[in-house]
Structure formats: C-alpha cells, structure tokens
Amino acid sequence: MFITSFHYFRGIAILFIIAAHVHVGNVEIDNPIFTNLLSGSTALFVFISGYLFQHLQKGVFNYPLYLKRKFKFVILPYLICSAPALINIALSGDFHPLLGDVTTVEGSLINIVTGRHITAYWYVPFALLLFISAPIIIHFTSLTNKSQLTILLILSLLSILAHRPIGGLNPFHSFIYHIPFYLFGIYCVVHRDLIYKIRKYNYLFLFSTILLAYVQGHVIGSIGSSHKDLFVFSGLDLLYIQKTLLILFFITSINSLENFNIKPLSFLAKISFSLYFIHGYVLILLTRVSIDKTLLSYGLSDGSATFIKFMLVVAISSLLSICIIKTLGKRSRYFIGS
To answer: Which of 8, 67, 98, 142 could tie 265 with a disulfide, CB 3.0–4.6 Å?
Structure first.
C-alpha cells in the first residue's frame, strides 16, 4: 500500500542530504546548530530504506530476485554515474589524499569500492552490504519485540562508539554505524501500534533534537559528523542520538501530511535517487564556475549565499533528472535510479 506521507518523508530526506553538502564560506562554523541538524542526514534515507523494505514485503522473500532488482536499479546506476568521475580522476591522477600513493588502477578500484570519487557515493558500497545481508535482516523481523529492542540497543551503542569512517572509505564501518537505522525502519513497520502510541511526544522529540544539536555545537564544540578509525576510542557520537530523535519526530509527525497534496515534495521524492546520483556532479560544476565567489561578490552573507547555492543545486539536479527521464523513459532507472 502506498503511503503518501512517507513518500513526502523521502522528499524531505533528500533535501536534508543535499543541504548537508552545500556550504559557502564559514556558514557551517557560524551556524553550528543548523549544521548539526543537517549533518548525518543519510540516516534518514537509511531508515526510510529499512521501512520500505519491510512495508513492501509480500509472501516468501525471494533473495535472488531481490539482488537482481538491486543490481539493476542501484548498483548499475552507480557504476554508470560513476564512470565520468572515475575516468576524469584516472586521467588526471588526482586521487583523494586519503587514498595515499596509489597507481591509477589501484586508485580507481578503491574509488569504486568506497565511493570516494563523488560526494555521497559512499552510500552505495555500504548499501550493497545491506542487500547481501537481507536474509539475516529478514530473520530480525520474526524475533520478539524484546529481542528486537535488545538488538537495536546493542547495535546503537556500538554505532555511538564507532562513529563514521574517515572519508567514508570503509563500507564495513559505514555498515556498522548505519545498520541500526535500517533495522529501526523495519521495527517501525512491524510495531506500528507502538509507534502510534508515542505520537503525542512528537514535539518533545523535536525539542530534544534541537537541544542536542545545541549541546553539540555550543557546549561540546562538535560541528558536523564525527569520523574516526573503527578501533580508536574518541568519545560518544552524539550525532547518532540526535538523528535517532529526529527520525522519531518525523515518524510521529509525518502522518499529518497523509491527506495533503504537496506536489513539490512528491516530485522530489519520485526523483530522489536521481538527485542523489546527480547532485555531486552539480556541486563540482558550481565549484568550477566559482559560484561561491560570485554569490559573495554581490554582498550576500555566507548563510544567504549557501541558501541560494542549495536552491541552484536542487533546481539544476532536478532539471537534469527530468531531461534524462524524458529522454530514456523507463530505462532511466538503469542510468540514474529514477
């Protein structure tokens, strides 16, 4: 069954993800609360993926068919969309410093395996591990509520200690960090009645999210996502807790939009995957035309310039998505995921 409000949630999530990648000047440092609220927004997407994974399950789980569909509509678009960046980097030899001293072949393979070559592409190598783990994840749905909550708690504690991987270079580390969000999405489908009971606390979840973002930025001095080596202790990742609270706010509030016809959000939700694949290239394009310098030359503040740049990224990415979809029709899913 199609859930309109959750469809809108996907549109909101992709806007959060894009916004987290757009900044001009010192906007992130000057606005720590806003930066912390946006950072790590991929957690929303992971949660939604888990929710839809469970919501769309009908009958016996067909693992081979599932993998085939994920290859066609996620892995194949990833490889196709990656090709221009991979070729350009290979020809220029401009590999990311985190890759170290690598040959062209080594650097290209590492980029493919990690998604380091384009902003946000780390998500697909991580998602591939989710796809492979599907039979184990399916087993999670059959456990008792107590067992599911215990697993979620243990994995969440592990994520809070693990933080995110440096440069997004370790898909297994990303898997450890994000798998609780995915399982929580599944949990919210299996236990809709429990989620319904906590709807009255929605504004408390929002207040707690903002308060924690404030504590991160103004008390602890932590701005943005925390990245570290997996086996190095570096305190607790409060951003994980903050994003969990933000998800709780959305799932206890989003149903209020069920009977509204919000066409812009619906449109963004429909092309969310193509926006994900394309917006990294748009960011590169805007950098090469010195958009930051141009916007600031008009006397705009860093915040205003960042907002305009964000709107440009969304608009250009959307137009490119529409052009590709119109040109390729249904085949566009193989190229850009939408």
So the answer is: 8
